[in-house]
Design a protein that fits this description.
Layout (H helix, E strand, L loop, with lengths): L8 E4 L6 E2 L1 H14 L7 H5 L6 H12 L7 H15 L5 E2 L3 H10 L3 E5 L4 H11 L7 E3 L12 H10 L6 E5 L2 H10 L3 E4 L16 E3 L5 H6 L9
Parallel strand pairs: 1-4, 1-6, 4-5, 6-7, 7-8
Antiparallel strand pairs: 2-3
Helix pairs in contact: 1-4, 3-4
């Protein structure tokens, strides 16, 4: 695509890309740790665990809190999910420019999918609460398939649901997981500077473009190829 082919669809990460979900997630992790009698973790510590799915988040939070091995993830994950169902979308916010950017993409004829490692029930609820679901055609969540990002399978599945060739798609994300998934699937990847890139920050990721706001997406895609929409 960067060489000049058409872009028909945009696949978009959720946590750290469209919505600042860290406050909701950290609150749920704190409640989970309290349930097991462990102290709260620093906000930035938990935020650094976001992006690789709920099992990874729970496991790393338990390890960081020094919780005894007898509290297996199978016991802790349902506790986290119960609390996260309550905090989901309550404190976090849509990043500035996201809604306007998605609206612009829709008006220009792009098809859009959310591809996230968050479980479907939580992702769908959040997209509904924030109104972002109105601008998305497809949701591929962390439990939609047997594998999640950085596997390319969720990317290819979203392309299939959109009926768009992967060669005519781009991925927008915020983390090394998104970069790895895009590379594995053969898609160009745009990274937002404000997300959960982790150590090294967004500028340290080997992406195809960096943006400060979703409002820059149409112009970024325009530089990559022909924008005559097939309506």
């Amino acid at each position: 695509m960067v060489g000049g082919s058409r872009c028909d669809a945009v696949l978009i990460d959720l946590d750290g890309t469209m919505v600042d979900t860290a406050p909701d997630i950290v609150a749920a992790v704190s409640r989970m740790l309290e349930h097991f009698g462990a102290p709260m973790l620093p906000f930035d510590t938990v935020a650094g665990f976001i992006g690789n799915g709920v099992p990874n988040l729970v496991r790393r939070s338990l390890e960081a809190a020094g919780i005894d091995k007898r509290f297996a993830i199978e016991q802790a994950q349902p506790v986290f999910e119960q609390h996260y169902a309550d905090t989901n979308g309550q404190v976090g916010r849509v990043f500035p420019g996201v809604t306007a950017g998605l609206r612009d993409l829709r008006e220009r004829g792009y098809r859009c999918a959310c591809v996230t490692n968050k479980p479907e029930a939580l992702a769908a609820s959040l997209l509904t609460r924030t109104g972002l679901g109105d601008y998305l055609d497809v949701l591929v969540a962390g439990d939609t398939l047997a594998s999640m990002k950085p596997s390319p399978e969720p990317i290819w599945h979203a392309c299939h649901l959109l009926d768009v060739d992967p060669g005519h798609c781009a991925l927008v994300g915020d983390s090394p997981v998104d970069v790895a998934a895009a590379r594995a699937a053969g898609l160009p990847v745009i990274i937002v500077r404000y997300g959960y890139a982790g150590q090294g920050g967004a500028d340290g990721l080997r992406c195809d473009a960096l943006i400060d706001s979703f409002e820059a997406l149409p112009a970024t895609l325009a530089r990559w190829g022909h924008l005559t929409r097939a309506n």
